[in-house]
Specification:
Largest sheet: none
Shape: globular
Order of helices and strands: HHHHHHHHHHHHHHHHHHHHHHH
Radius of gyration: 31 Å
Distance between the termini: 35 Å
Helix content: over 70%
Strand content: under 5%
């Protein structure tokens, strides 16, 4: 499914012609500026009048980023930074640092990206530029997001969100909610993801940002797709499609067609899926966006494979492959290689299938994609089995299981991380609420004391009555404050207990599931080995396989005993009331 970030990339490619015109215009303007300065001044050193040049350099760098010319973009951003520092142009200094941070982030140089974004943040905080500060926090969060460091990403995204709430920056707020939603998707926390995407949608509707509204529907539809709620996913993607048609956004229309096609594909409705994918392809051919075009050809190829129409499948997959080679889409290439291999395997061409799987495997290793590695090793195991290479099939199946389990463990880690993050967030919310309540009551007491001083001029009975009134009122407020404090403390304790129970349950599950996974995996492998041994004619291969089978059975026994030992240890700790001590040691 294509998210907002992918949709933005499509839109950027669509307007690349206009960007090239702006790039040419800015470059000519810079040449003319330097020529005029040289003509009118003997001293060519930078001065305060060069703010215009600095702004042009930063604008040119930003345009070059949009067309992925990072080398030139970096050169102009550095030139802008140098001049801005010489003339003390702080706003431009921050912009230059931020631009460099974006360039390095897009190149995967995260250390340099953070260094430059932090430098921009410092300048903006010192100069009191709140909107710029929020942008820097957002950019830093993006760097952590790209590295899959989701707690750090959320930390900076939330700070950016808070500043934008204070400044009522509608555009920034919608972007913050969208970014936070993207993190929650990666963590598998779909309710929080939808909540933030709906918050972004509400702001887009308030300011009547049609593109933003459509993009939010697209994001919400993607979350429901991941949850397997295809009816709600379709509802939101059709809503996005309707708006894209109203505003004439062809790239957005193609994106919606593609996403709707993928939903129908998952539902097994290949006829409608193919029609929507072909509609997306038609528009993408018209606007000439190669990346989305190559994806559409790939999707169509997969659909024809599902329908058993292998000739059409291969025709589309080879077109996709060629395009992905031209644009250097390594991840897309690996998927295309796997898809072609899958068609060959389905068409009983095991030898050719194996060659394509191997091509995909080399790229999957390069980009370290666990999901692709799982699929490719699974394909290789099937191809080897069809070719009678049972030993190779066994070895590849073991690797398939290994990467499958790695993915399962990765999902488990995400869930544990999410539990911990939610606990920390709840704890902070209660603490903030408690602090706010105490500060409010203290302010009220101070205010009443000030009033008591003001009324000090009243005489006799009036003074006594007023003082008694405020004493009684303060007493009542203090009693209410104490009650609120007690309730907040109880809520904090309850939250900590619930979070602790959640973490303990997660650790129990992890402790026991780990050896059980081994038992399950080695049992599956042993069953397949027995089937393979029955087919083997070579005595040496049979003996080797039997020895591996014995080893598997020993491992099954070992991990069964390990699970039993874990349960007994936990029971013993529970009897002694020391269960928490058992979980202080990190599980293997």
């Amino acid at each position: 499914m294509k998210n907002t970030f992918t949709l933005c990339l499509i839109l950027l490619a669509f307007i690349s012609f206009a960007q090239n015109e702006r790039i040419d215009s800015l470059q000519h303007a810079l040449i003319n500026y330097d020529a005029q300065k040289l003509e009118h001044r003997k001293n060519f050193l930078p001065d305060e009048s060069d703010t215009t040049k600095v702004n042009m350099l930063n604008a040119l760098s930003a345009e070059l980023i949009m067309v992925s010319n990072f080398t030139s973009a970096e050169k102009y951003a550095n030139e802008a930074l140098t001049i801005a520092k010489q003339i003390g142009f702080k706003k431009a200094i921050a912009i230059s640092y931020g631009t460099l941070g974006i360039i390095y982030n897009m190149q995967g140089n995260y250390a340099e990206a953070l260094k430059n974004h932090m430098a921009a943040l410092k300048v903006r905080e010192e100069s009191g530029d709140k909107n710029g500060t929020a942008n820097s926090y957002n950019n830093i969060g993006r760097v952590f997001y790209e590295q899959a460091k989701y707690p750090e990403a959320l930390k900076y995204y939330f700070v950016a969100l808070k500043i934008r709430q204070e400044t009522d920056d509608k555009k920034g707020l919608s972007a913050s909610y969208g970014n936070i939603g993207s993190v929650y998707i990666e963590l598998g926390n779909y309710p929080e993801a939808v909540k933030n995407y709906f918050a972004a949608l509400k702001i887009h509707e308030e300011v009547d940002n049609k593109n933003g509204i459509a993009a939010s529907y697209n994001d919400i539809g993607n979350v429901y797709f991941k949850e397997g709620n295809y009816s709600e996913s379709l509802k939101n993607h059709f809503a996005s499609l309707k708006i894209m048609k109203e505003i004439g956004n062809k790239a957005g229309i193609a994106n919606s067609y593609s996403n709707i096609g993928l939903i129908y594909q998952e539902q097994g409705n290949y006829t409608d899926a193919l029609q929507f994918c072909l509609d997306a392809l038609r528009i993408e051919e018209e606007i000439g966006v190669k990346k989305s075009l190559s994806n559409s050809y790939l999707n169509i190829g997969v659909l024809y494979t599902r329908k058993g129409e292998y000739t059409e499948a291969l025709n589309n997959l080879f077109i996709s492959l060629k395009m992905k080679e031209e644009i250097g889409d390594v991840n897309g290439l690996a998927i295309a290689y796997f898809s072609i291999g899958d068609v060959k395997l389905e068409n009983h061409e095991a030898a050719e299938a194996r060659q394509w799987f191997m091509k995909g495997l080399n790229l999957a290793k390069e980009i370290k994609s666990l999901e692709l590695l799982e699929n490719l090793y699974g394909g290789l195991a099937k191809a080897d089995n069809a070719l009678g290479n049972f030993k190779g099939a066994y070895e590849n199946h073991k690797l398939f299981v290994l990467y499958r389990d790695s993915l399962n463990n990765e999902e488990g880690t995400k869930r544990t991380l999410q539990t911990k993050m939610q606990y920390e967030f709840d704890k902070k919310q209660v603490a903030d609420s408690l602090k706010f309540s105490q500060e409010k009551e203290l302010s009220a007491v101070k205010l009443q004391k000030q009033k008591a001083v003001t009324y000090g001029g009243f005489a006799g009975i009036a003074i006594t009555i007023v003082l008694l009134f405020f004493v009684y009122r303060n007493y009542s407020k203090q009693r209410i404050a104490n009650q609120k404090l007690k309730e907040a403390q109880e809520q904090l304790i309850k939250s900590e207990k619930m979070a602790a129970f959640g973490m303990m349950a997660s650790r129990v599950s992890h402790e026991i599931q780990n050896p059980l996974n081994f038992v399950t995996n080695f049992s599956e492998m042993s069953e397949e080995m027995v089937n393979e041994i029955m087919k083997m004619n070579n005595e040496q291969e049979r003996n080797d396989a039997l020895q591996d089978l014995i080893t598997n059975l020993q491992k099954i026994n070992h991990h069964s005993m390990r699970a039993d030992a874990i349960v007994k240890q936990l029971q013993e700790h529970t009897k002694k009331g020391t269960a928490h001590e058992y979980f202080e040691v990190k599980p293997e």
